[in-house]
Amino acid sequence: MSLAFGRPIRVMPGPSHLPDRVLNAMHREAPNIYEGELVGITDTIRRDLCALAGTDGALAMYIANGHAAWEAALVNTLAPGDRVLALVTGRFGHGWAQTARDLGLDVATMDFGTDRAADPARLEARLRADRGHALRAVLTVQTDTATSVNNDVEALGAALRAAGHPALYMVDSIASFCCAPMRMDAWGIDVLLTACQKGLMTPPGISFTFAGPRARQARRRLQRVSPYFDWLPRFDPQLYYQNFHGTAPTHHLFGLRAALDMILEEGIDNVLARHAVLARCVWAAAEAWAGGAGAGGLRLNVAARAQRSVAVTTLLTGPGDGARLRRWCEDEAGLTLGAGLPLGAGMAHGDGVFRIGHMGHLNPPMLLGALATVDAGLKALGIAHGDGALRLAAETLADALPAAGTGAAAAE
Ligand SMILES: *Cc1c(COP(=O)(O)O)cnc(C)c1O
């Protein structure tokens, strides 16, 4: 017997859940691509994304995934041979650094390991030591989706300023955009990038690079950028097709517009607060699994709460147990957990790792149901774990919510 019936629940860290409202907005005939609704929607999407990023800067959009945004950020600001510093706190930091290497940049890395955030003091010291200002850019991820480390990108930006270093500051917020706070301009970020399939609740297919004035200056100094990736026509398109260097991703734009409407109606502060509460529910459960008399090798990858992502949580198990647990949840209960990625470069074995994504269109019954299913899987498979996970998750939720209903249920 299997109980994998009913609506499957996926807690992968992207693509995240698709709201019915987003799906319904996409379910329609091909639109007029010369004038009218689609053209208007594209402008409001630009406006709203810039507001959510906290920037007055320019936005280039791509029919592409996050990997393309990594590349777009680099090819528009740097030339082969330029030296950059990549801060690494897991596989996604390594991935961006490798992209930079593959583009012919001279990449230095500061590796902070796989279970803690990048240290702003160490960054500041490293930049001060670069007296000749050879480093042209500093690259970091906000949330590393493999390790679930959350970097304090505000403090890292302050470190650049404290060191008086002119390197461009580039941040990948793909896993954290509309999950964790972002104030691009206030935090001194020159290039911010994200994609639509995580906190933005839209099927994978559009990614974004935001560019501040210093980044735009760097673009203008380059002789040539590959025409598809070039920021300039995309920033301020004179003709509609220049938004996407060709046909627009029509239906994705309708879906994204609906997702942005949902975010704006809920209010971004409420969206961020919801992510923070649901993350604390996951942490409460996971800390209980890791502690107490029954505990075995199960534990959270990131020990310090302040350094944990509010969008994804990485758990470590004994060898093989993460893979067994994922198999059991999928086959027996219809729950898809996030695969364990090798946490750093050259680290084998994602089978002792699993991840719970808690980003985007998610509420307590979805998340607590997932946690309860994991709890059942641990018991069914005889994987040692501490008691009380579900009680603590429920108490965390109860503490965060008002005792009387607010009457704020979203009509959907
Ligand atoms: C998901 C993710 C990426 C990669 O995005 P793709 O759309 O899979 O190319 C890059 N960086 C971070 C932090 C991510 O979470």
Automatic annotation (TrEMBL):
GO terms for biological process: glycine biosynthetic process, by transamination of glyoxylate. Residues 45-280 form the Aminotransferase class V domain. It holds the Pfam family Aminotran_5. Its cofactor is pyridoxal 5'-phosphate. InterPro entries: Aminotrans_V_dom (IPR000192), PyrdxlP-dep_Trfase (IPR015424), PyrdxlP-dep_Trfase_major (IPR015421), PyrdxlP-dep_Trfase_small (IPR015422), SP_NH2Trfase/AEP_transaminase (IPR024169). The modification N6-(pyridoxal phosphate)lysine is found at residue 198. It comes from the Bacteria. Belongs to the class-V pyridoxal-phosphate-dependent aminotransferase family. This is Aminotransferase class V-fold PLP-dependent enzyme. It comes from Halovulum marinum.
